[in-house]
Write a structure and sequence with these properties.
Number of strands: 45
Number of helices: 15
Strand content: 25-35%
Shape: globular
Helix content: 10-25%
């Protein structure tokens, strides 16, 4: 009877909401816009549709023309208890490029805990489909409110919306506490909510977990077996049962947590969030390898960072995150390192809220497991390493050990042993300033740079066969060019945009990436139509026309053909492949070449490997990611933190007249937040540069700070200019080179062994390298006197050997 009650009650709710859609007397004066919410102001509506029938009856029609989200929330909530099983279903069909689906808002008292609990959806163009979601109410929930939601431009028709209680899951009846212990750590697991604490015996610090910001679970069964704790649990988003395994290392301050399920082909519509986040201390810092690296005091909210995936350069460039005590000095603070041991479908979720009611808002992160082609796929695992001291340097050195264990670490010396033909190119790359020149006198500019003392150069601007041959004869010059194997244009749109020589047009339509089995293709770079300008786009007068994306599994033959043909006339010694490791590992749903993220990574790495292994070229790519370290030698963008770069300046715009944004000053070149995490792990494996529109000389007021960062971290500068800008600023560029370049040449072959914050304001910092080179940089506006009496003027640096 209770199930019938819910159905009847909800049909009543639906009738209240859209009663004109089903009444015998049409009421055209009803304002249907008041029944639907949308985030943007673009046109949207909810109304009865007599022209689209299901089983002979009219349907409800939602039209949404915006690019963000919309929702129909039904008027009343339903009281629930943990363990209750509910089903929500409806018939739906869709048209458009967005999605529409069903879910419930999950409430804890009056506060919403999840806005899309149990969501299932349709994408793009679909015929009538039964949508059904079955979920289990998680711990702490008091009510649910069913709704229909969607994103982007979509028209959806629906009918027969209903909800019913389908039963109640039998949970573990008694609360159990399970413990594990070694000489470093003691773990205490609580079956009430699946959290566990870690007590570090060396320093007496207790790391406790919180459910705040994460989705709770329901523990079905738990037990201890020798050095591990096993826990069967439900996420609530569906009725699929998962198993977590918490294992403590015998003689290390380390533990692993794995998550698995017997039904690996089960559909995964939401990220699996387990284990839960550890509560930071008020004086801690959140450590994130976003590009080169950044840290945030946990008392501050992270800026422009929310979910950071581990499968591409625009997420986490190395597969870890951490939390350390914010302690100045060589000893460093205590903390933990979280290593994703299965990084192809994972990420870290960042939140800023109160871990507990009696605590202030804090920033912290926790692991999430994404679906593999929308299924759970395989066992996931994360490793936690706890430190009693050492700070971010200790975290990075432990991760460097791990990278060696899994085969990612490959220094330049090993790359040359593997392929001796790369020796000359590698020697030219170490310490080479990256030059992007836009003009008609490349040889004149190159000779002027050499005369000014800029004696090691990565020439990225390409050139004619004659110029390249001449450049290759000049000592210290490594010739390179831009290339890409991602984008191609719909042939029907070529009249509007023309053809870019690097597009793989022969791949249309059979080799493009599909985001959905219905044939929806992945959108790539947006091209401004002929005759239009960037200003026209910004004003809304015209829209960019989006390229399609080539499936990663199909890129290799295009690269082999293009590079082999070009090298016959243009003797490049290096090549830069755009987007390959900046873009995420893309899944593909094309029936002829389906691909998961692991397979995408494989093919991306085969593309990069081709350059050195077959063509003996030094290899570069965009932004950078550790998966490419064995194959890639330099990255454009590693030193430019992605979320805080200067605005895009166009392909040939080499200056920027607007004031430098505060975000750039604070996070991009500010010493309060940046850390050389990448260099501490991979300095002797790759060369990092700034991004191509975030280069050293782009803004006068932060130029010196960029140079100092290059010197401190040991990577070379990037300069980008037209002939006019070179003529006006050649002396300053040459002086910048003298500050920014030398350390990279001195240390490019060796490990960065240490990084120290020397002052409480973090304006004076020091790096140490394995060959004895030490660098101290003062980023402050006043001089600083070292303990030995050395005086460092404002914005200056010193190399010690």
């Amino acid at each position: 009877m209770k199930n019938v009650f819910y159905r009847t009650l909800f049909f009543l709710f639906a009738g209240l909401l859209i009663s004109p859609l089903f009444s015998a007397e049409p009421e055209s004066t009803i304002d249907f816009r008041s029944k639907i919410w949308a985030r943007t102001k673009e046109e949207y509506s909810l109304k009865k549709d007599d022209s689209v029938l299901y089983q002979g009856k009219p349907t409800a029609k939602v039209v949404h023309k915006g690019e963000e989200d919309w929702a129909i929330s039904f008027p009343k909530s339903i009281a629930v208890e943990p363990g209750d099983i509910f089903e929500i279903s409806c018939m739906m069909k869709t048209e458009g490029v967005g999605d529409a689906g069903i879910s419930a808002i999950l409430y804890k008292g009056k506060e919403s805990a999840d806005w899309g609990f149990g969501r299932v959806q349709l994408f793009g163009n679909t015929d009538w489909t039964e949508l059904k979601t079955t979920f289990v109410v998680p711990l702490g929930s008091t009510s649910i409110q069913p709704r229909i939601t969607g994103h982007r431009v979509i028209t959806a028709w629906f009918t027969n919306f209903q909800i019913k209680k389908a039963g109640k899951y039998q949970l573990e009846k008694e609360r159990k506490i399970h413990s594990l212990e070694n000489r470093f750590l003691k773990i205490r697991f609580d079956s009430r909510d699946g959290t566990f604490s870690v007590f570090d015996k060396r320093i007496g610090r207790l790391w406790e977990q919180t459910l705040a910001g994460a989705s709770p679970i329901l523990v079905v069964k738990s037990e201890r077996k020798e050095n591990e704790i096993l826990c069967a649990f439900l996420r609530g988003q569906n009725t699929l049962e998962y198993t977590a395994r918490i294992a403590l290392e015998e003689d290390k301050p380390e533990l692993t947590v794995s998550v698995d399920t017997k039904d690996k082909n089960s559909v995964l519509t939401n990220k699996v969030q387990y284990p839960f986040p550890f509560i930071p201390g008020n004086n801690d810092r959140l450590i994130l390898p976003v590009n080169e690296g950044i840290s945030f005091p946990v008392r501050e909210k992270t800026v422009n960072l929310w979910y950071l995936y581990t499968y591409g350069g625009h997420g986490l460039c190395m597969g870890f995150f951490g939390n350390i005590e914010d302690k100045i000095g060589p000893a460093g603070g205590n903390g933990y390192l979280a290593i994703f041991e299965t990084p192809d479908d994972s990420g870290v979720q960042l939140v800023y809220q109160k871990p507990r009611e009696n605590m202030p808002e804090l920033s912290y992160g926790f692991p999430c497991w994404d679906g593999q082609t929308k299924k759970f796929g395989y066992k996931r695992q994360i490793r936690y390493v706890f430190f009693d001291k050492g700070g971010h340097v200790a975290l990075c050195k432990r991760y460097r050990e791990y990278s060696k264990q899994i085969g990612l670490y490959m220094p330049f010396t090993e790359k040359i042993k593997k392929n001796p033909n790369l020796k000359e190119g590698m020697e030219l790359l170490i310490g080479a300033a990256n030059i992007w020149y836009f003009g008609n006198e490349p040889m004149k500019v190159l000779h002027e740079m050499k005369a000014a003392g800029m004696d090691r150069i990565l020439w990225s601007a390409g050139g004619s066969p004659e110029n390249l041959t001449a450049m290759n004869k000049i000592d210290g010059v490594l010739t390179s060019r831009y290339d890409i194997y991602q984008d191609l244009m719909d042939p029907a749109r070529l009249k509007e945009v023309g053809v870019h020589p690097d597009w793989t047009q022969d791949a249309w339509p059979n080799e493009i990436n599909w985001t959905h089995p219905d044939g929806t293709w992945r959108k790539g770079w947006g091209v401004i139509p002929k005759g239009a300008t960037e200003a026209d786009v910004k004003s809304g007068k015209v829209k960019r026309i989006r390229c399609a994306v080539l499936c990663d599994s199909k890129a290799l033959p295009y690269a082999e053909k293009r590079i082999e043909k070009e090298l016959k006339t243009k003797p490049f010694k290096a090549r830069f492949i755009d987007t390959t490791v900046a873009a995420p590992w893309y899944e593909c749903f094309h029936p002829d070449h389906p691909m998961n993220r692991t397979q995408s990574r494989y093919w991306k790495m085969k593309l990069l490997e081709l350059l050195g292994a077959r063509f003996n070229l030094v290899c570069g790519s965009e932004t950078g990611h550790e998966a490419s370290v064995p194959y890639c030698d330099f990255f454009e963008g590693m030193n430019s933190l992605g979320p805080y770069r200067l605005p895009h300046g166009g392909l040939t715009n080499t200056d920027y007249s607007e004031p430098t944004p505060d975000l750039v000053k604070k996070y991009q070149v500010g010493t309060d937040y940046r850390l050389p995490l990448w260099e501490l792990v991979y300095h002797d494996c790759t060369v990092g540069y700034n991004y191509w529109y975030d280069f050293n000389n782009r803004k006068e007021d932060i130029w010196k700070k960029r140079d100092l960062l290059c010197a401190l971290y040991g990577f070379p500068p990037m300069y980008r200019f037209t002939q006019k800008i070179w003529d006006a600023h050649k002396e300053k560029i040459a002086e910048s080179y003298k500050i920014a370049e030398p350390v990279s040449r001195l240390t490019g072959w060796v490990e960065m062994t240490d990084h120290q914050i020397l002052t409480e304001d973090r304006l004076v910092q020091k790096t140490v390298f394995a060959n004895g080179v030490e660098v101290i940089a003062n980023f402050g506006s006043t001089s600083w006197t070292a303990p030995n009496g050395d005086v460092f003027p404002a914005e200056s640096m010193k190399i010690c050997q």
